Amino acid sequence: MVLKILKFYLIQSHKGMLNVVFIGTAGCGKTSLTHVFGKWLENELNASISYINLDPGVHRTPYTPSYDVREIITVDRLMECGLGPNGAMVRAAEIIEEKISEVSRKVHDLKSDFRLIDTPGQMELFLFRPMGPRFIEDIAKHSPTVSVYIIDPTMASTLSGLATSLLLPMITRLRLGVPVVSVINKADLPEVYKVEEFSRNLHDLEKEMRSEERGLIVDLASRFLELIDEFSKTIRIVKTSAITGEGMSDLYTLIHEALCECGDLM
Ligand SMILES: Nc1nc2c(ncn2[C@@H]2O[C@H](COP(=O)(O)OP(=O)(O)OP(=O)(O)O)[C@@H](O)[C@H]2O)c(=O)[nH]1
Ligand SMILES: [Mg+2]
Prior knowledge:
This protein is an alpha/beta fold. Helices cover 54% and strands 13% of the residues. α5 runs parallel beside α7, α8 crosses α11 (216-234) and α10 (203-212) packs antiparallel against α11 (216-234).
């Protein structure tokens, strides 16, 4: 009931459209979470969803895309022309960048309560090349946009892995210029307990590094921690699983909170 009221509030205040962009390292679960979160929004909130695939390398998506960037180019087609997998990914990104205004216009033309946007497997293609920032700038002009940064517990189950995983959402915020919420996905895996344990004792990272390293690296670790500390005061990370479906209502609430905080609901 509370969720339905929240949905009413969220959708009314945005004249029915909200963009949610899923981003994260290769294999963290972007495509699966896009699908499972979309199904949850459809079933629990009776919301209408447009699923958008921006990954030219994916073979099959569990959702039926309302817009699919593979109508422009696929990595397979470029590999058939002789490029290797990484070269083909970069070339595909270049071709998409040339048509990014067309892509964002087609996405903008999709009318639904939520547009869920699944991004390329290699995060750097979207985040560090012009493709992601340009696309987000275009679509965020018209409807509120939130990015969901997905932390993979298999990458964050050491202290330094966790520290880097916590920095990446900050970099995402910097590059994309829209609010970013973080989730730890694959909550059904045992590695998640380790991540939770480390999150509670993040300062052990400093101790561990101080015992092993000297000089610049210790300073660097301390600065990292200061940043993460500062950032952690304003964020809340929820656990999700695309396998069990846990955490979907928490993710929904997190998105809502992010929009409230940045004033986009006013
Ligand atoms: N255990 C577990 N596995 C998951 C979960 N979400 C995704 N996976 C698995 O992780 C693998 C990658 O999932 P995808 O959804 O394709 O991840 P992705 O980030 O879209 O992958 P790329 O686009 O190739 O980078 C698949 O084998 C999924 O079944 C989860 O919540 N729990
Ligand atoms: Mg994917």
